[in-house]
Amino acid sequence: MNMLVIYTYPNHKSLSYAFLQEIIKGSNENHNIKELQVLDLYEEGFNPLLVFNEHKRRRDMHRDPHLEKYRNQITWADKIVFVYPIWWGRPPAMLMGYIDQLFAANFAYRDKKGLLPEGLLKGKSVVCVSTMKGPTKYPLLWLNNAHKILMKKALFNFVGIKKVKFFEFGNMESSNGKQTKKLDKVYRYFKKVES
Questions:
Q1: Which of 67, 69, 182, 187 could form a disulfide with 26 if both were Cys (CB 3.0 to 4.6 A apart)?
Q2: What is the layout of strands, in order, in the sheet containing 79-85?
Q3: What is d(CA 27, CA 37) in angstroms, rounded to the nearest whole number?
Q4: What does the radius of gyration of the chain's CA atoms come to, in whole angstroms?
Q5: Model confidence pLDDT, tens digit, residues 65-93
Q6: Phi, psi (deg, nearest 5) at residue 45
């Protein structure tokens, strides 16, 4: 299995970065993972801004030469892992800008007759590892599970990815947030994960 990890946090001295390190460590010990690539969107200097004008049209994003490297990474990957904080009930704007540009028509999905498009990323799986300051149950109880609905139904299922796993860790700024236990849980998952 080829695995792509997309890291979205601007600080390498953070808990999000510690989760990234545990993912890498567990994956390197997993014989099911043939190759691992890490894309750090901030370190990469990824530009999340959409620009459309007479020279750059939305319907042509699937051919944008500036995005070819990232399209190739997604095509290559069997499993895509997203590591990010939940800010204001959703992923950071940097990650959403990446999604807006990469999960484009005629690359991630194709319009067809009927209500839903054809997902072009079938057969891949996704893991979302996210942290938040608030309680773990906050997205479920106060936001009607908006984060998971956004990521799973509005994005991944739309492009054909049906296998989606979430690690939503709350209370991460608390001294009693059980950070070490949660880091170990992620490490153990990636050490054993198959497809």
A1: 187
A2: 35-40, 2-7, 79-85, 125-131, 163-169
A3: 11
A4: 17
A5: 999 999 999 999 999 999 999 988 789 99
A6: 75, 30
pLDDT digits (tens, 9 = 90+) for 22-72: 999 999 999 999 999 999 999 999 999 988 888 888 888 899 999 999 999
Query: What's the CA gap between 114 and 88, in Å, rounded?
Result: 34
- Residue spans of beta strands (DSSP E) within the chain: 2-7, 35-40, 79-85, 109-110, 118-119, 125-131, 163-169
Phi-psi region at 90: left, alpha or beta (left = phi > 0; alpha = psi -120 to 50): beta
Cα separation of 189 and 3, whole Å? Answer: 14
The span from the CA of 10 to the CA of 40, in Å, is: 9
Q: What is the pTM of this model?
A: 0.91
- Residue 78, sorted as left (phi over 0), alpha (psi -120 to 50) or beta, turns out to be alpha
In whole angstroms, give the CA distance from residue 86 to residue 133.
8
- Which tokens go with 130? 């996210």
Q: With contact defined as beta carbons under 8 Å apart, do 155 and 82 qualify?
A: no
Block residue for tokens 């792509």: 4
